[in-house]
Amino acid sequence: MQPRLILVLGDQLTPNVAAIRAGDRARDVVLMAEVMAEASYVRHHQKKLAFVFSAMRHFAEELRQMGWQVDYVQLDDPENSGTLRGEVKRALARNELLETLVTEPGEWRLMQAMRGWSATKVLPDDRFAVDHRGFARWAQERKSVRMEHFYRLMRRKTGLLMDGEQPVGGRWNFDADNRKPATSGQNMPEPLRFSPDIITREVMDLVAKRFSNHFGDLEPFWFATTRADAEAAFAHFLQVGLADFGAYQDAMLRDQKFLCHSVISTYVNVGLLDPLAVCRAVEAEWRAGRVPLNSAEGFIRQIIGWREFIRGIYWWRMPGYDGSNALEARRRLPAFYWNADTPMACLRACIKQTRQEAYAHHIQRLMVTGNFALLAGVNPHELHEWYLAVYADAYEWVELPNTIGMSQFADGGLLASKPYAASGAYIDRMSDYCGDCAYNVKAKAGPKACPFNYLYWDFIARHRERLKENPRMAQMVRTWDKFSDARQAEIKSDTAKFLSSLSGA
Ligand code: FAD
Ligand code: DLZ
Ligand code: SF4
Questions:
Q1: pLDDT reported for residue 369
Q2: pLDDT value at position 186?
Q3: What CATH number is associated with residue 404?
Q4: Which end of the chain is flanked by fewer CB atoms within 10 Å, N or C?
Q5: Nearest 5°: phi and psi at 118?
Q6: Which one of 52, 72, 104 would you pick to mutate in the ligand 2 pocket, going by the greatest count of ligand atoms within 8 A of its CB?
Q7: Closest ligand 1 atom to 420 CA
Q8: Of 123, 143, 161, which residue is a domain's last?
Q9: CA gap 389, 396 in Å, rounded
Q10: How far is the CA of 404 from the centre of ligand 3 (A)?
């Protein structure tokens, strides 16, 4: 067989990726290329860029140590063409090769582009429990596509937390135990942080020079950029975070950015950690009696349930899913999503933290930034581009369904059974943000009232016809209907005044 060029993308950083497994290290050449097209299709957070480039450079070293010949193109190489296609062509010529082998990219736009590449074999990405066709077959057979049903299938398929055919503990889902608020000042674990090595420092200089106009603080940079460090970060979470992961999964605190979350999505999504191995390690902690079942089950559900389900939806519904706008939301994204300049303490804290860390945990994304955009009627596509840009773990296959489907209900209920809409009371119950806010969370009307309170009811009123048909929302519609005309008018007027004061919106 002729030697081939094996293209490895920036989120395929594992020797276990299909194209490497299919290659021959005695003959084939691995190409890795930092290219402007991938670095700028959205204005990625500066920390994300530094992370991806540094992890790519470290992985190239890992492959070389395994005996692979790696042809690595840095972003500032004067000959760099700026695109993956251009770099593949140059590398084929440089290495006198005729064929390319690549593992399917995670994003539809790149998959579509690769379909036009000549002499290129694209292998399925089998780092997931379910392939595209398997998911589509499962989804097409059902009237409604729900994560909970899919998750049970995944438990059976992987054998995780199973006693034969039955779920351990007699229940599939322990979510009811996972809604504990945290208290202000409560001690919480911190993720393991790493000092930048020479490779990361070089990359940071590059990002500072070339991408200083992108959102986000580059320093301090503390992400793991090697497999060994990512594994250490995960082992640290098993020790200090997992036991209380379940209880505080939905909690938010203004002085605690990470609480008991694992902060591993950035590593899992590029291949530094293997998702199934992570779940097996979590199950082992429970079987050893070191963590409660609600934590282990809750964590495993996020990965073999939500993560797999979200990916299935993406490939099943693309192309076109990114244009979904079932609620016809047209408002521009408020400027404070970029500068955190808002008197709303919850949004200010989540956006500031996003700028500093390229990280916010799920409830901050869903119930603060996502909830506000939903209630305010922000254009879902614009919001999608924001989420894709600002988080270190953001790749379209995982970000888009979370934004369009779960957070904005823009797919009309394909992914979620009801909109994740909530008033200030929810944020007050689950966080300590409100104590620091210019608004009063208990007030329902007037200039000091928490904007989430009237925006919530305005949202119910705007979408009354659709929501009254939804069994999980119909009660809210009935409550709205019972409000006096004066109360309804007050809500509409407070909403209009507030929304017209938003800049950029
Ligand atoms: P933990 O809370 O410790 O959870 C453990 C793991 O479960 C995560 O590392 C992640 O791999 C997985 N997980 C949890 N929830 C989800 C989910 N809903 N979808 C997929 N995987 C999940 N996650 C991303 O990886 N990339 C994104 O771009 C992304 N965008 C999001 C956008 C919105 C609007 C929302 C609501 C959620 C988004 N998520 C995204 C899901 C979730 O918020 C992150 O996976 C999580 O916050 C990562 O932090 P963690 O590693 O500390 O997670
Ligand atoms: C995210 C990213 C960035 C910022 N840069 C590169 C790059 O220069 N070269 C590369 O091969 N991959 C990069 N990536 C990851 C790709 O964007 C990712 O592989 C696709 O979006 C498919 O998921
Ligand atoms: Fe957010 Fe409202 Fe609480 Fe202020 S009062 S922090 S706006 S929920």
A1: 98
A2: 87
A3: 1.10.579.10
A4: N
A5: -80, 160
A6: 52
A7: 36
A8: 123
A9: 10
A10: 24
291 near 285, Cβ under 8 Å? yes
Which residue, chain included where needed, has tokens 């200030």?
424
CATH number of the domain that 142 lies in?
1.25.40.80
| 362 CA to centre of ligand 1 in angstroms | 6
Distance between CA 174 and CA 156 in Å, rounded? 17
The tens digit of pLDDT for each residue in 136-153 reads 999 999 989 999 999 999
Ligand 2: residue whose CA is nearest its atom 13: 10
Provide the domain count of the chain. 3
- Residues 39, 210: Cα–Cα separation, whole Å: 10
Domain region containing 447? 336-500
User: CB under 8 Å to 325, separation ≥6 — which residues?
Assistant: 379, 380, 381, 410
**Is 196 inside any structural domain?**
no
Query: Where does 168-305 have alpha helices with state H?
Result: 198-210, 227-240, 242-245, 265-270, 275-287, 293-300
User: pLDDT tens, 92-131?
Assistant: 999 999 999 999 999 999 999 999 999 999 999 999 999 9
The CA–CA distances, whole Å, from 237 to 189, 193, 241, 259 equal: 8, 12, 5, 11
Which atom belonging to ligand 3 lies closest to the Cα atom of 368?
1
Q: Does residue 457 share a domain with residue 362?
A: yes
For 316, the token pair is 């099943």
Helix (H) or strand (E) holding 457: helix 451-462
The CA 402 to ligand 1 mean position distance, Å, reads: 8
Answer yes or no: is 291 within a domain. Answer: yes
